[in-house]
Design a protein that fits this description.
Length: 302
C-alpha cells in the first residue's frame, strides 16, 4: 500500500502568509464575544454554545464545521438575531445587535422561497419591504437573477425549478438586500453531490465578484476546505470552539486543488478533530440483527 506523506497543515507558502496578514488587517465585520446559549431541554438545561469568541473580517469566507448537535445552527440563528443569546455579545461593524436586521442575509438548507411568487418577485420581496419603488425593485431583481444565471427563469415559480436553482434564487434574494454578511446554514446540504459541487463553484464566483463577507455552516470537509479562508471547528456538549484553522490552500480556489497536499493535509487534520481516533470503532459493536438468510451460493463475500 502506498501511504501519502502529507505536509503539516500549518505550513503556508509566503504568498498565503502574506494574504492572511493582509486579511487580519481588514476591518472586522462581525465579532462574537463570549457567546453562550442555553436551552431548557426535556431532561434539564442544555448548553448549546459556550464562550464562543470569533472575529470575521471584511470579505472573509469563514466555514463552521463540527459534529451533529454541536450547536452550528444555534450559532448562526443567534448571529442572525433569531435566537436570544443567554450571555455574551454580537457586534456588527462595532455595534451590538440583538434582533434580526437587513445587514444580515440568511440562506437555509431547506428551500424557503415563497411558492406563490415567481423568481423575480421572490427577489423583489425584500426590496419592496425596505421601501424600494416597484420599478427599482424590478430592475435590481433582474440584475440578481442574471448574476446567478437564471435570467431565463425569472417568471418561473419555485416548483418549476431544480433544488440547485432554488438555492441560487435564495442566494440572490439574500444578496439583493445588500447585507454586510451572508449567514448560510448548510445551504447545499439537500443537493446531490454533482449539483453541490457546481453550487460551490458558483458561490466562490459570487464571493470573488461582489463585496460580501460569508459565514457558512457545513458538515462536508471538502466543502469547508474548498470555500473557506478559515475553518472554525466546533466540538459538542457543550458547543465550544476546538480550533480555528487558516486554510493554507492558495486563493483564488479552483476544484483542481482538491487533491493538492495542502488541501488533503487540512482535510485530514479537521477529520481527526471531528472524529478522534477510535470513535468510529463504536460501529463494530452495533448489535446487527440478521434480517435475511445470509447463506449464498457465491461463498464468502468479504
Ligand atoms: N429550541 C431548542 N430547544 C431545546 N434544545 C435545543 C433547541 N435548539 C437546539 N437545541 C439543542 O442544542 C444543541 C445544538 O443544536 P443545533 O441544532 O444547533 O446543532 P447542529 O450542530 O446544527 O446540528 P446538525 O449538524 O444536526 O444540524 C442540541 O443538543 C439541540 O438538541
Ligand atoms: Mg444544524
Amino acid at each position: 500500500m502506498i501511504r501519502l506523506k502529507l505536509p503539516d497543515y500549518k505550513y503556508q507558502t509566503e504568498k498565503v502568509k502574506e494574504r492572511f496578514s493582509r486579511l487580519k488587517r481588514r476591518s472586522i465585520t462581525m465579532e462574537v464575544r463570549n457567546l453562550t446559549k442555553k436551552f431548557q431541554g426535556i431532561d434539564g438545561p442544555v448548553t448549546a454554545l459556550k464562550n464562543i469568541n470569533l472575529k470575521v473580517h471584511k470579505r472573509e469566507f469563514v466555514c463552521v464545521i463540527g459534529p451533529s448537535g454541536c450547536g452550528k445552527s444555534t450559532l448562526i440563528r443567534t448571529l442572525a438575531g433569531l435566537e436570544e443569546a443567554t450571555s455574551g455579545e454580537i457586534l456588527l461593524d462595532d455595534k451590538v445587535v440583538t434582533k434580526p436586521g437587513p445587514e444580515r442575509g440568511m440562506v437555509y438548507q431547506e428551500y424557503t422561497l415563497f411558492p406563490w411568487l415567481t423568481v423575480k418577485k421572490n427577489i423583489m420581496f425584500g426590496l419592496l419591504e425596505s421601501g424600494a419603488t416597484r420599478s427599482n425593485a424590478e430592475s435590481e431583481a433582474r440584475q440578481w437573477t442574471s448574476l446567478v444565471g437564471l435570467e431565463k427563469f425569472e417568471n418561473h415559480y419555485p416548483s418549476q425549478l431544480s433544488g440547485g436553482m432554488k438555492q441560487r434564487v435564495a442566494i440572490a434574494r439574500a444578496l439583493a438586500n445588500q447585507p454586510k454578511i451572508l449567514l448560510m446554514d448548510e445551504p447545499f446540504g439537500a443537493l446531490d453531490a454533482q449539483t453541490r459541487a457546481k453550487m460551490q463553484v458558483y458561490l466562490m464566483e459570487i464571493w470573488k465578484n461582489i463585496d460580501i463577507t460569508i459565514l457558512f455552516i457545513t458538515h462536508d470537509l471538502n466543502e469547508a476546505v474548498y470555500l473557506a479562508d478559515r475553518v472554525v471547528v466546533l466540538k459538542a456538549n457543550p458547543g465550544e470552539i476546538q480550533e480555528i484553522i487558516e486554510v493554507p490552500v492558495p486563493q483564488p480556489r479552483n476544484p483542481s486543488q482538491f487533491i493538492t497536499p495542502e488541501f488533503l493535509a487540512t482535510k485530514h487534520h479537521i477529520e481527526t478533530l471531528i472524529h478522534p481516533k477510535g470513535e468510529l470503532k463504536e460501529v463494530d459493536n452495533l448489535n446487527l440483527v440478521r434480517m435475511v438468510n445470509v447463506k449464498s451460493d457465491i461463498g464468502d463475500v468479504f
